[in-house]
UniProtKB/TrEMBL annotation:
This is Sulfur reduction protein DsrE. Keywords: Signal. InterPro entries: DsrEFH-like (IPR027396). Residues 1-21 form the signal peptide. It comes from Imtechella halotolerans K1. The keyword Signal applies.
Length: 137
């Protein structure tokens, strides 16, 4: 019984430390998961505004595009403006590999500015576990 109590205390103290570390982090990181590239401009403007508002506390801003929206990523007319804004505001854009596969998108046609990840939802959840602020659209 003593051993069980000791292990329980150890686990709880570890959890408490993790929550404390996240709450007291000087850096604010963000991730947005979207299924509509028409939302990219407002998302990127939000990144710009958060960078100004957060000042030196602003960290990473990542966008994950998944669902049918990935079919638009090979169309330069639809991506040119937001790729430029993403570079300007230091936003990293990811395309969900599952979605790319499901909708038969030729990844060789993706602009080099897009990074691909195997599973956009899983990646977003991983970032949330690291303390990222998250929104899904």
């Amino acid at each position: 019984m003593k051993k069980f109590v000791s292990i329980l205390i150890l686990i709880l103290s570890s959890f408490t430390y993790q929550v404390y570390a996240q709450e007291n982090s000087d850096t604010r990181n963000y991730v947005v998961l979207t299924r509509n590239i028409e939302q990219m401009k407002p998302i990127l403007l939000a990144a710009k505004n958060l960078a100004v508002e957060d000042g030196s506390s602003f960290g990473a801003f990542q966008v994950i595009i998944c669902g049918k929206a990935v079919t638009d990523l090979t169309n330069p007319e639809k991506t040119k403006e937001f790729i430029s804004l993403a570079e300007k505001y230091n936003v990293v854009i990811f395309a969900c590999g599952f979605s790319l596969e499901k909708f038969n998108v030729d990844t060789s046609l993706l602009p080099s500015e897009f990074k691909t990840i195997e599973n956009g939802i899983f990646y977003s959840l991983q970032l949330q576990k690291k303390g990222y602020f998250s929104v899904s659209l």
